Structures are given as structure tokens and as C-alpha cells.
Amino acid sequence: MNFPTLLTLFRIFIIPLLVVIYYLPLESKYLICAGLFGLAALTDWLDGFLARRWNQMTPFGAFLDPVADKLMVAVALGVLIEAYANWWLTLPALVIIGREIVISALREWMAELGKSAKVAVSWLGKVKTTFQMVSIFLLLLVPPGELIGWVGLGVLYLAAFLTLWSMFSYLRAALPHLLPSESK
Fold this sequence. Notes:
CATH architecture: Up-down Bundle
CATH class: Mainly Alpha
Distance between the termini: 51 Å
Radius of gyration: 18 Å
């Protein structure tokens, strides 16, 4: 167990804490939840950076990091879907969650074929993740209906667009392996 992996585990620990605090009758719950999410997003970047920098990459860490990232995003979006209770937040949130499921399955399948490099994380995936984190942070920061939340919703739509773009890029890269041409 190394420090980068402990940061990833810390990110997983933050997830239920964020949910509990979001539903407490606290005036400052939005600020606390946004802070927790921001801290989790920072550890998402930091654990990978430190693992590479200190040469502490492990198979367990490589498995756990994307799991923690997807859990963090999906749970936060789930809380926001319930809090906003409208289609205009639900739609991009479900696009993002659905894409994560599709790409996780695609990466697993491609790894079984020994072709995981074809669907490795790209620059577009990193940009998409940044917009997701910023949008969720802004949406958690204030109660539904406030201006910062509207800005967060706009960024969420941009993240959803980037999510679809990156998903189609990964699917296009995997297409020759998904639909191999029949040999004669």
C-alpha cells in the first residue's frame, strides 16, 4: 500500500460522506459538499501524478483509480439528479453515466483481446473529465436555481458533449475489433 493508492482510497471514502452531508439539514452543506468533491477531484489528479513521479504504479492502484473516479462522478450526479429533479440536468447526467459504463465495458473487452492501447485515455478524455469535475463542483456549491448552478449546468452540457465525442472516438478506434471483416 503506497501513498498514491491511499489517496485513491481516501477519494472512495469521501463519496458516502458527501452523500450524507448533502442530505443533512445544514445551511453550509452545499459549500461542504463542493469542497469534498473538489478535494476528491484534486486527489484524482494527484494520485496518478505521484504514482508516476515516484514510480509507485501498482496493478491495484491502476484498477482502483478509474473505479474511484467513476464512482465519484456517478454518485455526485445521482445526488444532483435527485436534488434538481428535472430533465435538463438529468439528461446530460445520464449521458455521462451511460458513457462511463460503455467505455468501461469497451476497455475491459479490448484488454481481453490484448488491444487496450487502442482505447487508452486520450487528451479528449482528460478534457472531458476536467469539465465534468468543474460542472459538478459548481452544481454542488449552491442550491438548485442559483446563478452559479446555472453556470454549472452549462458546463455540464459541454461535458456531456465532450463525453459523447470521446465515446465515439473510442468506439471508432475499437470498431475494427468490434466488427472484424469476415475473411474469405
